[in-house]
Amino acid sequence: MRWTQRLRGAGMAVAAAALLGGSLAAPAAQAADRQAGPLTDLVNPFIGTENEGNTYPGAAVPFGMVQFSPDTGHNTGYDYSHDHIRGFSLVHLSGVGCGLGGDLPVLPTTGDVTRTDYAAYQAEFGHDDESATPGYYRVGLKTGIEAELTATERTGVQRYTFPATDKANVLLNAGQSLHRGITTEVEILDNRTVRTAITGSGFCQDTKPYTVYTVTRFDRPFETSGTWNGDTVTTGSRKSVSTGRNGAFVRFDTTGDRTVEATTALSYVDARGAALNLRSEGGRSFDAVRAAAHRSWEDRLDDVRVKGGGDTLRRTFYSSLYRSFLAPNIGSDADGRYTGWDQRIHRAKGFTYYQNWSLWDTYRTQSQLLSLLAPREARDMAISVVRIDEESDWLPKWGYGTVETNIMTGDPVTPFLTNAYQQGLLKGYEERAYRALRKNADGVPPADSPAVGREANKEYLANGFAPYVKGRPHVKPGDSDYDHGASATLEYALSDAMLAEMARDLGHEADAARYAGRAQNYRKIFDDSTGFFRARDAAGAFTGPEDPARSEGFHEGTSWQYQWLVPQDLPGMVDLIGGKQAANERLDSFFAYEELLKDPAKTAREVWVNGPYDYYNADKYNPQNEPDLIAPYTYLSTGEPWKTTDVVHAALTLFTDTPTGMTGNDDLGTMSAWNVLSSIGVFPVQPGYDSWGLSTPVFERVDLTLDRRYYPRGALTVTAPGTSDDARYIQSARVDGDGYDRTYLTTDGLRDMRSLAFTVGTEPSGWGTSEEAAPPALN
After folding, report:
1. Angle in degrees, CA 137, 141, 144, rounded to 5
2. 323-338, pLDDT tens digit by residue?
3. Closest-CA residue to 712 (of 738, 755, 750, 683)
4. Arithmetic mean of pLDDT over the chain
5. CA distances from 63 to 30, 262, 397, 738 (A)
6. CB atoms within 10 A of CB 106
7. How far is CA 296 from CA 242, 290, 550, in A?
8. What is the H or E stretch that residue 747 is in?
9. Bridge partners, residue 46, by sequence
10. Residue of 710, 686, 652 whose CA lies nearest to 363
11. Which of 491, 151, 394, 450 is nearest to 294 (CA)?
12. Fewest Cβ atoms nearer than 10 Å: which of 78, 282, 488, 547?
């Protein structure tokens, strides 16, 4: 089926209310196995396109370089509430919070070309004539033109069906993208081919510039063409260079043949790379490319088969699984060449080079999901990050394309790479990765490096905490750890703990002891007088309001929301706040647990969530942002594991199959991966290590097909017969038929098992409540 969106105004509110009132985990009797058809039929690419989910509905293949999607005037591309399309552009990142990409918006028009600003020549459309499935997007414009998009890894393929006219145009707008443009060049090479070079910068703040090269080849000659520069349109012109509005138009006669197809190839290397990618992946009809894109998605989604659950649950699950595979993205050309962070050309040999690293987000969920379901690609991604260090002399923090943006704080690259190590993805690269991580953990990038790394490391190493220095000027573009000293301290300590485990495994005992000691630095910002973490200033004094809900120095959160970000030592954290009873009382307050039991969905929407960017001045759980993603699993360490399921299942109600069905920014698959893993009931509770916490699955059966090179059994089946909103409490668990009392698994355990079976009931049980059942502290 095609996803055609018709929910508008009050109709959308009514539909959303109906979805919230539906069952989260309906018995299988209420939903026969509906997977006889393609799994792609269960994916709705419009989820998250409204209310700042910032997803895109356009065409892409798994991890593809190209994301061919409409732009409507929103900061990050497409917004479902808009009704005009400015162009279909090649590059989008799913769920980012700032404008990025949007390169080469292309729009079909008719008549004379008189306007060069896409906000002026944009085309009206309606959702009743718009549809999307994985790898395909279609819309009928009110101008009478039908536009269809599909993609390969490195090309976007477009098909336009025009009315009968001798002035059918395709506008290629090089000068207007979602990022900050600097210089663009367009060149019409012949009567079928247009080439561009687009140099831009910026993601939330200014960054070093990067260049995207494109070449577009049409399936038939155009009748005439020209360029524009600023407001001036010049028919017959073949080339234009500008720092402002800049583009090219080509014109066809569609009085006979009304269809025009074109393939646009992308490269971050050079024009030759774009031409090579076009030769390698172009030359096929639109329908052939669309069919191949559909097959690639069907193959990917088919690795996870679920049974049970209602229609909404299945659609939100498979849509989340789809979004989890959209990034990181291929960065190397068909010949293996790529532009490194040293801005030089390199060649990937024996692996595919990837780029786009939203590490502060993805290290908590998506990187683990990919290590489970896409280990071959995840290995290449980890190798790519190691290569970034070797080519630019520092590891990334938040990398886009060929440059560092320094967005977000802490040290997210360490748990990303130590996770890859723990999952067996760095064989042959262990010491190379470790050297890069050690340098990053023990130092600060030099002044001439674009990276900020652990910016506050000097003070952290000397005093055990990163200071909060309010109003300190930024030395480099991006975020500063000094602006968020308290949360940076917690994230440095988390990373130290994970690096200590890797160091010990590799035989670096002295390093392991040193990092293990630093992993306890979370204690340095614990204020005994308030019982919460607090920022310290440069002199070491606690600073900011004593009220933890009004705390300062925490990035996108408060002390309430960061208090459980000590996955390396939850027993130690629990002791700090007075033991398990005190911890459970605080957790119950944090999650509004008594209200949650009465009405989970209402609690999630009215108590927890107060807006897509409402991060501060709160004492409640924020399920739509990264600092709290692990928090529900804290109950596994406090002797009340059934409450983890209560909180997780309430949070899952925030995911729906409507355009507003994302809980805040998806952040390159982070929130989607949280949904997938939590729905399966296996979640990475110690990011950067190999521990997976357990909760009740929302499906009666989940069959995972796993890569035998990493998981010798080749498959894992998770079952929970009768799981539902009422019967959601684990009574017992069995691994390959043997009783299992712990609330966590290890990756080695996952590799050795074939089945994980839960027995569920309507009341909490004593399962998983012993001291030995909880995930152990590290180091």
Report:
1. 125
2. 999 999 999 999 999 9
3. 750
4. 94
5. 35, 22, 20, 38
6. 25
7. 39, 10, 48
8. helix 747-752
9. none
10. 686
11. 151
12. 547
β-pair type (715-719, 755-761): parallel
Please report the DSSP string for 528-593 in residue order. Answer: TTTTEE--B-TTS-B-S-SSGGG--S-TTS-HHHHTT--TT-HHHHHHHTTSHHHHHHHHHHHTTH
Q: At what angle do helices 413-422 and 430-442 cross, to 10 degrees?
A: 150
CA distances from 565 to 156, 210, 380, 490 (A): 41, 35, 29, 7
Give the pLDDT band (50/70/90) at residue 613: confident
Contact 437, 454 (CB under 8 A): no
Structure tokens belonging to residue 106: 């292309």
Residue type, 714: G
Among the listed residues 18, 49, 9, 27, the one whose alpha carbon sits nearest the alpha carbon of residue 722: 27
483: which DSSP letter? G
CA 409 to each of CA 320, 327, 390, 627, 633: distance values in angstroms, whole numbers, following the listed order = 26, 20, 22, 12, 23
Q: At residue 409, what is the residue type?
A: T
Q: Which helix (H) or strand (E) holds 418?
A: helix 413-422
Q: What is the pLDDT of residues 201-216, one digit of tens each?
A: 878 777 788 999 999 9
Cβ(565)–Cβ(770) below 8 Å: no
Q: Which two structure tokens, joined as six digits, stand for 709?
A: 């090179």
Q: Token match 């706040």: residue? A: 577
Q: pLDDT tens, 369-391?
A: 999 999 999 999 999 999 999 99
Q: How far apart are CA 646 and CA 596, in angstroms?
A: 8
Residue 730 gets which letter from DSSP?
E
Q: At what angle do helices 311-324 and 366-373 cross, to 10 degrees?
A: 90
Token readout for 291 is 């069919």
| Domains located in the chain, CATH noted | 3-299 (2.70.98.10)
Report the number of secondary-structure helices (H) and strands (E) in the chain: 21, 36
